């Protein structure tokens, strides 16, 4: 048997739609795999009642097929599904790493990224790699069709998860199909600022680089209370706030000392909007870990 802990991730970071991602040091899924003649799946943990066990509909089924590695796969969910915190990606990345080990396939983590992305295609319709890349490699990742690059950025974060569900598939439907040259120039500037901020481990630059005006405003409408939560986090000392992945989680970057204040302000603002929420005080963390085989 092989067991892997695979972390939650936050994709896009505002200006890096479908490209940027970070691994979060918590929460995480735990994936156990055992050799079998055909793939079977068992799911326990947070939101497991909403996750199919049919290998044709669970992301890990697609990963097992892509690796030609049938197994009994047991997933203990720590990352709630439809959260914007890479729940499906945590399972996909965890299964890819565990099955690679179980069947001695010898693939590198970089080579596992497109395989784990096959799982994402099952649920969102597209094999976007911006969650599975940080879930496998850790740190801040830039995932393009040609390559994935990663840097080990140490940045404090707050991820605030309201008790509403937004499916990635639905949130992809509201993304505008066109953008003006002015909006593109704005996005490139912010994305570059964010990347420099990650390299310098500077939360202020990262926060400034999160500002984005094409995708985020369209998605924010799917999150009850988003504008007030964002304002409350900024007033409490956050350096930048954006939608985490496709939402509904909201991601704030701030200095380590400000995390408790920012988390409380975000929870309170969701509460004022009539939505219960919880907050993870977290930071950019490591990729999936094999911890028992
Ligand atoms: N192993 C899995 N873990 C989480 N969600 C899964 C898994 N397999 C299939 N799903 C389905 O994927 C959807 C959640 O994925 P997604 O909408 O991308 O949310 P998230 O942003 O949390 O990854 C749900 O419909 C869920 O039932
Ligand atoms: N780039 C994707 C990321 C989806 O992330 P998730 O955590 O919501 O699955 C998108 O924005 O659609």
TrEMBL record:
Binding site residues for ATP: 80-90
Keywords: Amino-acid biosynthesis, ATP-binding, Cytoplasm, Kinase, Nucleotide-binding, Threonine biosynthesis, Transferase
Gene3D superfamilies: 3.30.230.10, GHMP kinase, C-terminal domain
The protein's Enzyme Commission number: 2.7.1.39
InterPro entries xrefs: GHMP_kinase_C_dom, GHMP_kinase_C_sf, GHMP_kinase_N_dom, Homoserine_kinase, Ribosomal_Su5_D2-typ_SF, Ribsml_uS5_D2-typ_fold_subgr
Family (UniProt): Belongs to the GHMP kinase family. Homoserine kinase subfamily.
Function according to Swiss-Prot or TrEMBL: Catalyzes the ATP-dependent phosphorylation of L-homoserine to L-homoserine phosphate.
Name of the protein: Homoserine kinase
Native source species: Haloferax marinum
Chain's gene name: thrB
């Amino acid at each position: 048997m092989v067991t892997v802990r695979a972390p939650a991730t936050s994709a896009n970071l505002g200006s890096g739609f479908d490209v940027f991602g970070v691994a979060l040091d918590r929460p995480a899924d735990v994936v156990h795999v055992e050799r079998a003649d055909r793939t079977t799946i068992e799911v326990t943990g947070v939101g497991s009642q909403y996750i199919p066990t049919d290998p044709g509909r669970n992301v890990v089924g697609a990963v097992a097929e892509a690796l030609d590695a049938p197994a009994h796969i047991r997933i203990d969910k720590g990352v709630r599904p439809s959260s914007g915190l890479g729940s499906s990606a945590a399972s996909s990345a965890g299964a890819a790493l565990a099955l690679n080990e179980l069947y001695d396939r010898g693939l590198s983590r970089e080579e596992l990224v497109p395989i784990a992305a096959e799982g994402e295609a099952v649920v969102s319709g597209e094999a976007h790699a911006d969650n599975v890349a940080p879930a496998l490699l850790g740190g801040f990742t830039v995932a393009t069709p040609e390559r994935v690059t990663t840097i080990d950025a140490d940045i404090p974060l707050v991820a605030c998860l309201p008790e509403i569900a937004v499916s990635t598939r639905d949130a992809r439907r509201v993304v505008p199909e066109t953008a003006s040259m002015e909006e593109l120039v704005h996005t490139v500037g912010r994305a570059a600022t964010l990347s420099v901020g990650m390299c310098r481990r500077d939360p202020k630059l990262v926060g400034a680089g999160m500002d984005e005006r094409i995708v985020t405003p369209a998605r924010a409408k799917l999150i009850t209370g988003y504008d007030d939560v964002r304002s409350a986090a900024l007033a409490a000392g956050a350096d930048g706030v954006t939608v985490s992945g496709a939402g509904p989680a909201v991601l704030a970057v701030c200095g380590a000392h400000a995390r408790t204040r920012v988390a409380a302000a975000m929870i309170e603002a969701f509460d004022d909007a009539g939505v219960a929420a919880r907050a993870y005080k977290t930071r950019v963390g490591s990729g999936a870990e094999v911890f028992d085989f």
